[in-house]
């Protein structure tokens, strides 16, 4: 009797071990290290260089603008995180508004460096990015309705969520 119980236990254990082995690395959650402002600025500048055909001087000027903007956005995010950890509720839309203003300043600085054709292409790029972000927002809203998820309280409503995602999209351009 003990042999049967022991063998049944071994078979069950082997089955569970093999089943877990089948899952493999695909099911392991990948955690990315947050990018530094310089890494984000480099990525944005490289995408713009590829899409707009920037020359060396334009690339250098746009990189500087992107680094400055990314550093200021990081400072805002750090400040917001510190306030949340202290239990302070951020003023509704305050950080989103500041990030939007930083992105608008960045856009003005970038547009000042570009030629007429590049400006047209840049505006087209921004429009495409916003459209992709709107689709992501719609997808998330449908998912939220499907799952009947409650708001976490970080954002007051879906408009704030949409504005935040649109700001992130502009940050990624």
Question: What do these coordinates show?
Answer:
This protein is mainly alpha-helical. The chain has one domain. The chain contains 6 helices and no strands. Helix 2 runs antiparallel to helix 3 and helix 3 runs antiparallel to helix 4. The longest helix has 32 residues. The chain is elongated, with a radius of gyration of 24 Å.
What brief labels describe this structure?
173 residues; mainly alpha; 6 helices; elongated
Strand content: under 5%
**Helical amount:** over 70%
Task: Name the shape in a single word.
Answer: elongated
Radius of gyration: 24 Å
Count of β-strands? 0
The succession of helices and strands, N to C, reads HHHHHH
What is the terminal separation in angstroms?
69 Å
What are the low-pLDDT stretches, counting only 5+ consecutive residues below 50? Answer: none
Give me the secondary-structure topology.
Layout: H1 2-23, H2 37-52, H3 56-85, H4 94-113, H5 116-147, H6 158-172
Provide a quick synopsis of the model.
The protein has 173 residues and is mainly alpha-helical. It is built from six helices and no strands.
